[in-house]
């Protein structure tokens, strides 16, 4: 039997027995008889969606602006501890504070995907911003590096993860044709934070001290709590879906019910796709050296060029070209069909690895500035098209899970990179080998990603030969014809 016809017949039978639903915010977006279903849904491509874009921009900007400016906080933390002459492993220990925060953003992502799908984007994002606010505020009341592992590294990192990921998912509710543009605006606009925060932190840090600096940064998260309330999913849950699931579960034994509940919360279907597995592995490999320049570049410049007054310019250059790259890549991504978007990530990773290796070769401070301009551009191209590629690989229903698992896989290498670089500095007395080795993983990851479109084309050809073009199109429509992720009470299809 045709699964598409069965799905339509079942939906129409249910709609005849239900009272007429309340009108949707966008009444023309759903055909009659398919209330609460993703089949036939057309996002408004604007309207209230632009307010959501602004809120997502603030979310991304405040979180990653603080993270990418950690090079300034890194130096302030060491000064607050009395310098590095007392502890030969101080570089490693201090770098671990920022690496934990960045790593927790990605480590928590699979769990965030579950919360996003179960309780909605709005509640998840607001709760995460509140936790991040508590983490930054509590970091101002201690001078212990170990306590800041928890307050800044764990609390701020976990809260940022819960606030950040829904900001990616919610855009898929309001944009489809302009999804790349919306992601580009969010990512590009957020880079204004990365450009201004280094100068801001350098200015106020020397004036008010590290403790009060953490308090000022916590205000960004407090504002995000309020802005997260705009993350309103368009599609309401189906009125009868809960009762249907209860009836099905009642007819199963305990083992089947437990298995069903586990599959519901931990949807591993995305890993059945070979292209997704390769893509996720390639990115996880590449990010081992991704965060190293953001943490150690300021300290490297101070040691190598004795420059301690203009080093913040490097982070501004990173933020400026990253914003440019995100705006440009978002628009370019909309013009590139299908999985060919991945080649933008391939190019960005290859260039990023090369630029990391070029840092020790710079003979003057101005040369490091040029390298930072290219590093920021690579960052922009990599970040912006990550969500559109996930939608291309697994469809809109599984996009939240796909993004969550991907960010989770990125957690360990991204957390390990900066401390390893700090350890190499402690052992060899300089950053040369650290930056050389930081450039290797992005190059390897780029080579791995380059095979994903080729494998995808080969799989499509094989599918056409085995089952025919019509059957392939029907199965793809059924896969994407479910509720969008991020709606409260939306269930993963078992």
TrEMBL record:
GO terms for molecular function: L-phenylalanine transmembrane transporter activity; L-tryptophan transmembrane transporter activity; L-tyrosine transmembrane transporter activity; thyroid hormone transmembrane transporter activity. Keywords: Cell membrane, Membrane, Transmembrane, Transmembrane helix. It is a multi-pass membrane protein. Residues 1-25 are annotated as: Disordered. The chain crosses the membrane at residues 48-75, 95-112, 119-137, 149-172, 179-201, 213-235, 276-292, 312-330, 342-361, 367-391, 403-425, 431-455. It catalyses: L-tyrosine(in) = L-tyrosine(out); L-phenylalanine(in) = L-phenylalanine(out); L-thyroxine(out) = L-thyroxine(in); L-tryptophan(in) = L-tryptophan(out). It comes from the Eukaryota. InterPro entries: MFS, MFS_trans_sf, Proton-linked_MCT. Sodium- and proton-independent thyroid hormones and aromatic acids transporter. Mediates both uptake and efflux of 3,5,3'-triiodothyronine (T3) and 3,5,3',5'-tetraiodothyronine (T4) with high affinity, suggesting a role in the homeostasis of thyroid hormone levels. Plays an important role in homeostasis of aromatic amino acids. Belongs to the major facilitator superfamily. Monocarboxylate porter (TC 2.A.1.13) family. PANTHER family: MONOCARBOXYLATE TRANSPORTER, MONOCARBOXYLATE TRANSPORTER 8. This is Monocarboxylate transporter 10. It comes from Chelonoidis abingdonii.
